[in-house]
Amino acid sequence: MTLRKSSTIMESSKPHSAAIHPAREYDDVPEQGELALDQKGSADPNALRRVAAFTALIVLIALGVLAFGATQLPVLPQFTTLHASFIFLVNAIAGFVLLGQFRYRRLPFYAILAGAYLFGAFVTIPFILAFPSALKAEGSVIGGPQSAIWAWHFWHILFPAIVALSLIPRNSLCEKPLSEQQANRMISASIAGAAILTFAVGIAITVFHDSLPVLLTPPGTPLPPAFYFAGGLAATIAAFAAFLAWRHGLRQRTILHLWLAVSLTAFLADIAASLGATGRYTVAWYFGRIESMIAAGILLLAFLYEVNRLYRRLTIAMSKLSEANVKLVSLIDEKDRLVADLQHSEEQVRQLAYYDALTCLPNRRLLLDRFRQALTQAKRHGYSMAVMFLDLDRFKQVNDTLGHDAGDELLRQVAVRITGCIRSGDTVSRSGGDEFILVMAEISHPQDAALVADKIIRVLETPFEIASHPVQIGVSIGIAVYPIDGTDDTQELMKKADMAMYAAKESGRNCYRFYDDGLAAHQGV
Question: What does the alpha-carbon distance between residue 95 and residue 305 come to, in Å, rounded to a whole number?
């Protein structure tokens, strides 16, 4: 019964350790999908408000430029160098961040978008080399007078075109993750494509410079239709790409597409300001350069902000998981303590149920169980066994003179000495008071029992030291042997051993007697 109770308690303690389940208790732990900014619903209300604020600021500044765009400002050719360097650095970083996202998500969208940003970085090289006075005091390093303006238009046509290309194919084929081998090939293709396009732009503005339509005319003369056609084409493609980004971002609430839409809106404002500028180094011209810098930096800043936000969430989650781990360890320790206490309690219950509390010897209940087993084995295999009743002589005198504590100590020492006289397979029990019962499970001859009885008598004759007093006692022993005494009933054998013990006392104490039929007649049984 106690074992079933212990298993029930141990099973009931298991849910305590399972109750601390980090995945259920702490929703701050980001799942794999939350690490991607293109996930549906990744833009919370705060992100939407930030997107709206940035877009409104860009539009308001663009409207202000319309009023003061023609105002001439100081000529600073070095600003173009700063502008191109900033665009190159930021777009290159954004491109490689997108490639990193592609390695993680393996969606073609990221690889195409990364190619657009890498092209936006690479194309600033021929642009700055062709811009007058940017790297050379007079004129440009490469190309002719139309090279810089054509590099700018190629940049503002091809960049949004590639971005639009990444946004158009939103079908199952393009949204299906690629294999690692396919992803590696696409990364190489993205970088190579951006480099090839840049090389083609460089060839077009240098080798084919004279074949390109004239976009810039001398100051004071109207700009040719080709300028507005090229600028209008760039504006149309940028507006289309921005429309795709806004539509997808607002429908799916994805952070990446919303901030890409803001970036393309700034890029469109750059084109509009440049088309509206009456010449270089005006308010509109400088604003266009600043808008292109904003357009380049927005997506990278969005990535950095979201990564920082994710890091904060991970930090909070790890802190909570650490607290959960401490609680879990505490619960496990508590469970282990409860189990240990339960096992100790079970051992105590078992000890009380089957052992004598004073001498730690088996009690009458355990003795009878072992006695029945020994008797069954003797009957089955045809060998003999013996049961002895032991009663201490002069024990009452010790209790009366030295007290009950001394009597208890004497019983403990007697139990130790008797145990030392028997075999490991035999059982000695204290049945109560100063009486002990010994079951010898297997003997070859009754004389074997006599030898053990004689040994116990001699051992107990040796004085005991109790409460600093020497104590001399004796023992009277009665022996019944199966099958000589003709019964396989345990109670009957114990009764016969008891009669033999009383016969030993009547014979002068401190001796042993075997049972015989004459004892029954003598004691009137």
Answer: 16
